Amino acid sequence: MANSRISVDPATIKAHDHAREREIPTVWERHEAMQPICAFGDLGLCCTICYMGPCRIDPFSKEDVGGACGAKKDTISARNFTRATAAGAAAHSDHGRGVCQVLLDAARGEAKDYQISDIEKLKTLAAELEIETENVSYADLAAQVARRFFDNFGQSEGYIDLIKRAPEGQQQRWKKAGVYPRAIDREVVECLHRTHIGVDADHRSLILQAVRCALADGWGGSMIATDVQDVLFGSPKPVRAKVNLGVLKQDQINVVVHGHEPLLSEMIVVASRDKEILDYAKSKGAVGITLSGICCTANEILMRQGYPVAGNFLQQELAISTGAVETMIVDVQCIMPGLTEVAGHFHTQVITTSEKARIPGAKHLQFEEHRALDFAKTILKSAIDNFPNRDAGKVDIPQEMMDLVAGFTAENTFHHLGGTFRSSYRPLNDGIMSGRLRGVVGVVGCNNVRIPHDSGHIALVEELLKHDVLVIQTGCSALACAKAGWLRPEAAKEKAGQGLREICETVGIPPVLHMGSCVDNSRILVACAEMVKEGGVGVDISQLPVAAAAPEAMSEKAVSIGLYAVASGITTFYSPAPRILGTPAVLDYLTKGMEKDFGACWVFEDDPIKAAHGIIEHLDRKREALKLDPMMYPVKISRSA
Amino acid sequence: MPDKRKVFVVSNLCTGCRTCEIACAVEHSQSKTLLGAISEELPPRYRIQVQAGDDLKLPLNCLHCEEPDCLFACKSGAVSKNPETGQVSVDMSRCVGCWMCVMVCPFGAAQPDHHRGKVIKCDLCEGRAGGPACVEACPTRALFYGTNEEFRAFIEEMKQIGIIGKSA
Amino acid sequence: MNYVIIGNSAAGIGAAEAIREVDAESAIVIISDEPESAYSRALISYELAGWIDKGELTFRPPEFYTEKNIEVQSGQRVVKIDTSVNEVHLRGGDTVPYDRLLLATGGSPQKTGVKGEEKEGVFGFRTYGDLQKIYKSVKKAKEGIVLGGGCIGLQAASGLHHHKIKTTIAITSPHLLSQVADPECGDFFQALFEDNGIKVKTGVKPLEFKGGDRIETVLFDDGTELPTQLVITGKGVKPNTDLAQGTKIEIDWGIKTDDRMATAEPNIYAAGDVAVTKDRVSCESTVNAVWPCAYEQGRIAGLNMAGKKVAYDGSMRMNAADFFGVSFISIGIVKPVDAGYESHSYFSQDQKIYRKMVFKGNHLVGAVLVGIVDNAGVLTNLMRKRVDVSTIKNDLLQGRYDFAVMSKLIKDQMESFQEPEYQEIVVV
To answer: Structure pTM?
Structure first.
């Protein structure tokens, strides 16, 4: 496979070459060996729901006789889409439930290693939930908040609480469409029920349930996860750090945390600073311990602790194939089972820690929140013990490494825009209204081996910056742009259009703002709601000059995120499309019909430059509808790109 | 010796995934892409068909017969057999859709295309760089493109490495 | 070696091509009384119906003869065969010597025997010449009558309809396609034709073609008299056996042949619509005047003329056509007259699907397919090879007859499947 098909990141190419020379297959080789991709599956025309099948619909046949039960292609692909949404929402939300449990345990003194780090946020949350805050201990308040959030998962009456954060326009649209989310688990369960054989066969009805489930994720499970993590571990603040495989150190014990939840990784951070542990490391001949992250765990310890990032999703195996990683500690989501195969070529131990995720070939050490710090120390000791097993001859760490600033949130980001003295979205809205900024676009999502690693994120964001679009990012997408250097304030000068540059330089922020992990896409929803509240750029999210993009989407979580973004009024450019392209009816609803119901739609465009231009045109249409000032520094779209 | 290559079938390697059909239809579409092909006004038709028997999955295609009944039956002179390559081809500009070939092909490999009023059958993806698209697409190597000798050698190899039974 | 072939259609060309496969050198002369180079007789109805462009009937391109080094004498009529000196006599008096002679003289439309048959505007429908004459009349005609409800008759009617002529099909039988289909199927096509604006009159015999020099009306035995300016008769074809007179060649309706397509006269072969062959399904000797059989017989004759010993496994009744977008294929014995046959049919008016299977014992002997004709060749093959279909009979009756279904039979009846293709396909 040509390197241009692998990645646009030189470190990734080097590390992959290294693995290839050693004949260690990674995701690229496995994906190639798996070709051709099954077109029935790819088009969403394969149904494996009941055991009469599997059934598949011929995409070339003019007559659709349906599968064995008579489900035609619109039913089949809408069901598949709904199930994907449910799985994605379940993943985010179960993560949210996990952190709520720790908040409750911490409040009750049962998880003594955790504490309430952001009291202000706790109080704000409690007020929002209409919990009495006067004369109540923080512990009690935390327990009440945790219990209330637990109720949001399984309550039999009412609606999820944080949905109230959405502007009135969204509230009305959701009620009208009948998608106002009730309880998080309930919506996931209902997706599964409806998609069982012989229940809901109407594609629009199915997708609307998927919408309700996705909203329960974005304004529910994910938002709860974000907020409770902020309470427990502190709200992020801008912080400088380093990113890419070059953060791994030849002379240090390299411990990589990978997955999604910060519960354990935060404790490992603490443990790694422990003198006893550091002394132990030195006793084994290491200069120190380098703790770094992959995927969203990386984002969590990056934005709160400034810890380095080894890489994003497609780099997880490559981190191991540097030969320099003693231990990779994983929890949940996006962890390739192929890791242990790669680790088998080196001394690296892969340790699974969540009872929800075990991987053949990995060592399992069950994480216990009640003795979190001890557990973290045990793991670090085990990593240190593994250091002497490292084969220096096999070590090959690409030296690439980039500076970045992370740690922006819905609350703090615009403190910067307004200056540190007041927290207001006014300056952002003014920037947009005056035509300095074209709009704000959230570029988020995964890596996908079908697309050269990072290429979609890089190309899309670069084009947006040129056109004075402020980019906010989360997840693996943020890490892609971080590696490219665009999360440095200096990038404003190098990459941004004149208007964006002026704002960035005045405030001293990068043109691309890191807003966290993938559950933190909820921060983007809140930011949009705040923009509406501030006024002047639309009374409903769908009127804002904003958009979202996931140019290398891979997971079911991305489907759920895309769907809650669109249902919340944010038009979303998504690639590769979820498996609905073989079904004109479903495609039509997602790309056109949703516009009527929710004021926004999906756009499936695989070319990141074309997607960027689509986004720019979309923002311009929104600006025009709001009769905003023309762009202060117009830049012509160059079609040659 | 002339290069008489064609598509052979190893039926017990076929999983019935129908990827060959898709590849064939896409190759015979206007756009040559999957997404383009499924949205064409007159969708392309595949020439290869995965047929199912009791214990059999058979990706069936034109066998480019030694004595092609379709050629003998064609009343418009559209069918010919290349003496060098053995390929039986249909000159589409001359096919009138009389279905004589459909009536006589023992394998059902000549299919009527009512939308276009012409027969469709395997053209071995003539001119395609990678050879027939179906063969390239098959994930389990149930299709083989080559000469008879090459095919026999392939079968032997498959038997040696135990992919197909020795009894076969 | 001198090969002489009389007739330049399917059988003649089939023979010439086969000879060339074996013998690249010897002279081949094709003599044809038609002025055109090889064209497909079977396509004249397609041209009349506008399905193919005018003049696209060429069955082999003009360069075919030079490439294959074949001499063609077009517009020449052979009037006599002199078997004593192995020569054929042309009308002009010339003679052509032969070492091997093929009679591929075809057939001619049968006379109707109706009074007034010679009038202008009454045509047979078989040759390119007929077509040209019809074209001339078509321009002036408002009304037309087709006598005959077989495939050719129906195609002729579609052709006249295409030229905006108010067309009536008049037949003596009670339903269309009576030779090759059941009433149910015939009635389906009658409705189809009527829906498309063509009238069908069943159970009537023409008594007289009336008018002056030109046809003006046709009088039928039910007393009706229909005005018309054009009549096409489709009463079937009679083998052109005249040349056999004065030779040892045996005639029984057509020219009798053995399994190498040889006649009783040494070095003289016959093939195509003139030849009597053994029907491989009914086992009766008969003329199966259809294109695929003609070509195949010509090919067998040619191979044997060139010294190969190849046996013909027999001809078959079969025909395929397409009427107003509805396909029709009929194979083998589809209207058995005696006991011992078993017929099953399935009909769906909505789907425009009709299917009939005829069995004799464990053998499939006939099939009619309407609407969906895919895999018809599999059925043809089952009949042709006379394989025992008892194990797949239920599949056949339910319309499942793709090759995979049939392939079950191969292992048990290997002797019937000796062609190399079967070895290739059922490898493991």
So the answer is: 0.84
